[in-house]
Write a sequence for this structure.
């Protein structure tokens, strides 16, 4: 990835400015926001900064019921322009996650993401630097050469406290799993709660060397 020239006025403290800048740069219709609905912050920032912006949920067929609940709540509350992208028709629920997580993520996440980004110029994500060591240097924007798209990370500088404060200020619903010890939420077979003080990403692909789903790493 290479850095993209962003105005000095953009700051990791003001994510809505970053999304408005992206809309001016590329046009709102050329943007797509991918959201895991682990929390409500990214979709709220995006949908209020640029009303009608496309929000994509990758439905892997293994989303938690709690995550689906949050999707429904936020879609109603924020009048989201939500697009749910499914795996290809030949991909059906199976046990691939038990034997080959790379292959499972490839057909349920990576391929659907690629379809979601087709024809778009800017991809807005919820990646944050505090997510873990592999994300510690996340820039506000960079050009993803492999996907031929500008990747925009408006929440890159947000801490966990920033996220909480933002959600409280805007009275946003939380994913019910958060208060049950799930700081990072993906598919149910590959997500577990973490203990107090444990790294947030330890709850993903626990017992496996995998740390990224292939979307961002
Ligand atoms: S996170 Fe797990 S269940 Fe979800 S796509 Fe990846 S391997 Fe499959």
């Amino acid at each position: 990835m290479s850095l993209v020239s962003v105005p000095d006025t953009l700051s990791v403290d003001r994510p809505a400015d970053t999304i408005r800048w992206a809309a001016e740069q590329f046009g709102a219709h050329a943007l797509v926001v991918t959201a895991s609905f682990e929390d409500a912050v990214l979709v709220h920032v995006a949908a209020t900064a640029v009303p009608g912006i496309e929000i994509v949920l990758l439905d892997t067929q293994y989303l938690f019921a709690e995550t689906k609940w949050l999707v429904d709540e936020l879609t109603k509350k924020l009048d989201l322009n939500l697009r749910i992208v499914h795996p290809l028709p030949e991909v059906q629920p199976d046990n691939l996650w038990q034997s080959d997580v790379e292959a499972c993520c490839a057909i349920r996440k990576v391929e659907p993401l690629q379809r979601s980004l087709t024809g778009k110029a800017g991809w807005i994500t919820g990646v944050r630097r505090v997510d873990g060591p592999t994300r510690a240097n996340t820039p506000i924007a960079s050009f993803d050469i492999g996907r031929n798209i500008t990747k925009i990370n408006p929440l890159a500088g947000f801490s966990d406290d920033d996220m909480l404060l933002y959600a409280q200020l805007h009275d946003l619903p939380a994913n019910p799993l958060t208060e049950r010890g799930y700081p990072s939420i993906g598919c149910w077979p590959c997500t577990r709660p973490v203990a107090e003080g444990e790294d947030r990403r330890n709850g993903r692909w626990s017992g496996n060397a995998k740390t990224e789903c292939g979307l961002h790493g």
